[in-house]
Amino acid sequence: MKKSEYEAAVERYEKPYQSWIKENEKEEYYCEDMEKAREKVLEKYYVFASEGASIEKRLYDYVLNLPDSDFIYTDEDIYDSGALSSKGKISAEDRSDPYFKGEWAPETIRSFYYPGSLTLVKKEIADRIEKEYSYERASNDFLRECALASKSHLHINEVLVHVDRLNSLDYANVSEPSDAEFGVTAVILSKDHPEMLEQCVSGLNKTARTENVALRTIVVDNGSSEEHTRHYEALSKLHEFEYYKKEMPFEYSTLCNYGASLEKDNRLLLFLNDDIEIPEETVFLREMAEMASKAEVGAVGCKLLYPGDNKIQHNGITFLKSGPSHRLCTYPDDREYLRGVNRRRRNVLAVTGAALMCEAKKFREIKGFDERLKIAYTDVDLCFAFLRAGYRNVCLSDFYLIHHESLSRKDDTADRTAYRRLKNERVVFEKKYSEIIEKGDIYESGKWSKTSLEYIPELLMEEERLGAAKEIERVDKRRFSLKRAGKKFHYSLDSVEFKLNDAFGNENFYEIKGWAFMGGSPGYEYDVRIVLEADGERYITGAARSYRKDIELVFADEKDCRLSGFDAKIDAALFKNADAKIYIALVKPKFFGKNSFKGELADSGRHILFSAENQQI
User: What pLDDT sits at residue 612?
Assistant: First the structure.
């Protein structure tokens, strides 16, 4: 790897936003007369900016060359005080915390003012709102009413405003309390987990009484043992729920549709997993009912946390490279992400079926769950059916429930048979909603990573550049030397695993991970290669570098080992039923030829068995 390539790779990990700016923003923007463009825009619009906001001059030319709209907002980021130069320019190094936004989202803006620090509003609309309401002009409340009164909304997908960190806005939630009466029918599927169900229904009954919500609970059991059946029957009397036994394989869509069919009135339907625990302090039924009862809202979900460690399980569903995914899954909920995305109410592409509420009449309108999808994509399919019918879906992240996920069913991606079924159901799902999938998630910016669950700018990292090797080079033993490098060679072979899939779209592969560097040498001087001895032959394959700040801290005296991590992926079809000896090789690029492998290598001395069970799906 060249020194410049190495440094650029390090910067992608250490300064992802600065790297994104360099790779995506034009250094110069040409406009024949920027001041004239500004004057034309100001004839039609009021420009509202927060204190300390630095507006890019190109904003005005953008506005003139985009469709006419009543309400306009842009992406933004933050700069620290003192970074503004005498010329009014803020460098990429001084910019941080990007806020890449989605398109117009009515429920989001009713919750908090997500357009942020720069808004353009048609003058006639702003003047009318000022007369009709007593809000302070330019306040978030005032601008929210302007947005809701506007017939057309435009999101400029560019970072055109930079906000002084000291004056960055507080995106506070706006609640809409009401004393309306609500009737809710909870549909819960449960089999052979009476203790888990009791925790769920007891918490549900308690919150219904506290919130004064009329509750009917239907429990559908698809085949518990006789002992557990008797336990369920006893619980149904104790906790006042209706218990129905329907002997059949676990098919989520069919069972949920059956439970929903027992509700003949127009109550709200709450689909709830039996492994949901309702925290003592949580008030959620009325909040979800309020939102689900709105005329333009389809499915409503909420934030779910894993038990015990305050980590996020669900905060809305978006599309990543691997398909529908839970953004921020496994990340701690002890901090705010992306201006409080885990604390707010917002429009989302879809919500999880583990806790999903909708109106019964809307559920019937879209014909419920698609029973062609037995288990996978069932909740996303339902949400997409709502989208297609003209409704919007919402996730309420200002409160949470606890989800004891996977206690009742194994992860589909860890089981070969289940993964096969998941792939087949994904084909049905993607064909059915091709137009929605092609359009993408309108509520989340396409600038966020499509492989990471975190909100980091989309950048091509080394592990994405190198997919699973479909071919590997066989090396002639006579032209191949293997020598130990001695004390200067530091390494660890951390793991060798067979995987059905990963976030980058690879399937059926062996992944070899670890770290290695040559002491006393800059990290860019050596490339990592994986050498395999199997079936009486020797093979060599490349490996992607990965960032290992932990290794740099341990070896603090070394020149540079930040990219000492490596990740090699090898198609499982290349090796079947074979013992393989794995060597970690550090080699200077000039030693590596097309049909030969020369130079000094380092031997990890590790044996791994490629199991006969690792067959292609």
Answer: 40
What DSSP string describes 320-365? ETTEEEETTTT-BSSS--TTTTTTSEEEESB--TTEEEEEHHHHHH
- Determine the 3-state secondary structure of 382 from DSSP: helix
User: Residue 44 and residue 54: Cα distance in Å, rounded?
Assistant: 21
For the chain, what is the total number of helices (H) and then of strands (E)? Answer: 17, 27
Nearest to 79 by CA among 24, 136, 117, 40: 117
d(CA 395, CA 314): 9
- Which of these, 484, 517, 475, 480, lies nearest to 604 by C-alpha position? 484
Which of the two residues, 563 and 421, has the higher pLDDT score? 563
Which residues, in sequence order, are bridge partners of residue 511?
497, 569
Pure H helices in 440-566:
462-465, 549-554
d(CA 595, CA 194): 63
* Better pLDDT: 564 or 281: 564
Query: Which strand (E) or helix (H) includes residue 298?
Result: strand 297-305
Closest CA to 582 of 502, 499, 516, 505: 516
- Taking the model in full, what pTM does it have? 0.90
Query: For the chain, what is the largest distance between any 2 Cα atoms, rounded to a whole number of angstroms?
Result: 88
- Contact indicator for 301, 316 with CB cutoff of 8 Å: yes
Distance CA 346, CA 351 (A): 11
pLDDT at 595 over 80: no
Could you give the CA distance from residue 615 to residue 599 in angstroms, rounded to a whole number?
Answer: 35
Mean local confidence (pLDDT), 118-132: 97
Cα dihedral 384, 389, 390, 396 sign: negative
Strands 323-326 and 345-348: unpaired
CA distance 349 to 2: 42
Determine the pLDDT at residue 324: 92
**Interval 464-474: pLDDT, tens:** 666 777 778 77
Are the beta carbons of 581 and 536 closer than 8 angstroms?
A: no
- CA–CA separation, 393 and 359 (whole Å): 12
Contacts of 546 (CB under 8 A, 6+ apart): 461, 462, 463, 563, 565, 566, 567
Cα-flanking dihedrals φ and ψ of residue 244, to 5°?
Answer: -125, 130
Q: Report whether 376 contacts 425 (CB < 8 A).
A: yes
Tens-digit pLDDT profile for residues 408-432? 445 555 566 777 888 888 899 999 9
What is the signed CA dihedral for 28, 29, 33, 39, rounded to 10 degrees?
Answer: -120
> Any idea which of 29-33, 57-61, 86-90, 330-334 has the lowest mean pLDDT?
86-90
Q: What are phi and psi of 427, to 5 degrees?
A: -60, -45
pLDDT for position 8? 87
Quickly count: other Cβ atoms within 10 Å of residue 522's Cβ: 14
What average pLDDT does the structure give for the chain? Answer: 87
CB atoms within 10 A of CB 348: 28
- Measured CA to CA, the distance from residue 277 to residue 197 in angstroms comes to 9
